């Protein structure tokens, strides 16, 4: 019966549709209604206001459930269950019982469905539903108010402990020391809040794109102006030719655009975008376009510089993603929610605090026992026990850890290196491998045109060198160079890819600023190029570039459809990687010595581009923009090779040598030809002259033949002159393994790398240990490579120009983008100086910051324990340090040391080893433990020896030194007045002895732990810190040695004989010598630790070290001039999803 009532009470509207709703039937009940009215009156309308805010509560209060047939009130409820995780919205899908991400157009749409389903826009109803589901189209970076950040920070367990400490000291009347703790806490919280408030820069960077006016096309309503905030996936908006900052990701369905993607990539080179083809292929549109789908996509945050209409009307685009689902939103999210930094320092610092707390608890137990034994009041026992507990945990640890990175960030900024994630600076100190892009990073941005090697009748002709006194003669090669590019005229200046620019300049042709031509399908905007005054005479007035198939790093080619002005014939010109272009040409047109000629130039480090041509046979009414790329780019005629010179930047070779000397591996990851990359690596000293290069060539399975991998010694290696069999034997003898000093290097292209990932994954770690050159790598493969190197426990840096390297830059431990922009979101670090000098600079600063962080943590640990030991010794006889005595230790010494210790700059030369990466390591732990032992020994000696002096009195109150160290007779505690009881707990010879021992000991450890070379400059170069230490030491000695009643009275000291003060100074001198010797000669002695490790048989647990040891025992590694096959052809076992949507 109940089931029937429920069934009648409930119904589902629009089942399985976007606007699905649940309907519930209710009937108003008079008595309930009357009670609610009474409630409105008694609450003075507050209940009515509540029901206004919550209408469902109004229904539940006034009505009773009933069948929908009898209902006079229907409660509608959306079936959506929505959550938001890291700015991405997810909706619960009842049909499959899982959460689904919303805010994107489905990837399953085909090219045909995007054009026909969304080409005319959405209806008003569809837009409302999508707005409800997807939310607003905005990338909103919240600037958290200072009060909220403060509140969150203060609730940190450490600061709760600090508040407890503060309360304790205030209750004891130690106002000055309480002020010291407040100052420390305020500085620490302030630095942390300052760090967190860096999101304001990010907020300013994204805010301008949230409110852009766009013209949206909707069904039945036509065109209307909207704020981009209201855009939803599936909307169609117009690109009317004005400059526009794109507020969303969109796919172009009409016309073409020139876009500046500098905001995302750091490169301000105009990029041509073309419309999505009208093909009726059943494949999803991204699959149909393969790796090159980006050529149709306009990314959020980029700027449309120019929009060209097609014959069908103005340029239009369909919204793909909105808000944080966009490319820009994804980058912003990666900054707001960075990959967790698995770095030991922060975990170890927490362990230190836990360890100190445990020591504090032992001190608490000790105090309770001592004070209870002497039958002290419970209030005193609790107060003193808690006081010793808090003394063990230094209040400045969080502040000190923050100051190191803040100072390092400031130093980097002066060197034009900007950082958006300061936590990564410490990690830079552990980098032991750096990946470099080639073009624009290791080599100059611009290419110089060196020559053109034309081909005719399947034979190469005489090379035409540049610069030349005679212009390039007219012909297919000249036509290809003049038209096969993506150059545009903006503000009367030709702009575009540097390679395209150099190639076009070599023809002496000119580009018209804007033209409209009429092809067989109608009017269209085209680019027209004409011979310039210095060009060779040509039988054509000019060439109209009607359509482009843009270049992509995935396809490694581009082509254009053009038409000579005044002629009916259409031409297709292609340029790209020689191996790729030749595969699209008729083999009879490719010279037989093609590979030999290619190697001739690539082995000299030239960049080689191939050109090809085809006459298109098209029907009269065809629209060239509808041409299928695969069909058009087939059966071409090979035209020749374009040889370009790509010089190394002058800074490249010295920097790579510096990194090699510091035992930091360098790897080249480029989209260029493999032979060119190997030659550049040799020229840059990335591969030593005497080293051999083994080319790894892996092939996919074909039919019954499984996947194979061949190991070939590259030409140019010293053994290559020997006979094949002899060469193999000789090579096996000569090639050795030795970690960084191994005399062989692997080189491969992206295709081979992908086959290794799929079919030879077990071999990958072995190859990566000595792989130095990766060529023809797509952006996704670059990201995958960085991730695989990280799996081997390398700390990986990546340096690139930001264009095709975004994924790898973000994946690396330290990604450095060479960009003119100060705040590029392409990577954690941005260098405005466009060369790789920033890499050793960043590593130097990282090492200095890491060593400084360790030094500060060690110092604060010692400071806490020094104070703890001194206080514990005084507690033994129910005494304590004076208020001002604590104040000088905490404020004058420790606070200033913490704020200035990290100011020491990085040492200019990179050491051939890294600083320790863990606090919980033998040298660092021994340093702390031994110095604590020295402290205990020194303070205990002082405490015990002072009692044996003939002038010693247990409870003294005489301060004057003028009467020859006289003291009053000892008085029992019962005879002391209340006013003198405070003095009796402070005034003592033990306290007067222990204070200089503990205070100067703090200065000693500050000096000893401020290690200079090899990671930081000597301590004396840190002028502020050195001056402060000197001043602090002088202050402490003055207070201890001055025979002045006012000083002794204020500091609550007793006067001691001069000889005793000399003994105290001797104890401090001995402690300094022992501590300095132990730290500098023993614990920081790299050779001694290497010897100890060898004696105890210690071996590194890093994965790459384990593999190196394994390969050293393998007599058959590396293989040379052999070929291996996969045991069986397997399905793809590994897919790296890194940065998938930007391949």
TrEMBL record:
Recorded catalytic activity of this chain's protein: ATP + H2O = ADP + phosphate + H(+)
Superkingdom of origin organism: Eukaryota
PROSITE patterns found in the cross-reference section: ATPASE_E1_E2
UniProt cross-references to Pfam families, sorted A to Z: Cation_ATPase, Cation_ATPase_N, E1-E2_ATPase, P5-ATPase
Record keywords: ATP-binding, Magnesium, Membrane, Metal-binding, Nucleotide-binding, Translocase, Transmembrane, Transmembrane helix
Coiled coil residues, start to end: none
NCBIfam families attached to this UniProt entry: ATPase_P-type (TIGR01494), P-ATPase-V (TIGR01657)
Record-given protein name: Cation-transporting ATPase
Organism of this sequence: Gallus gallus
Lineage start: Eukaryota, Metazoa, Chordata, Craniata, Vertebrata
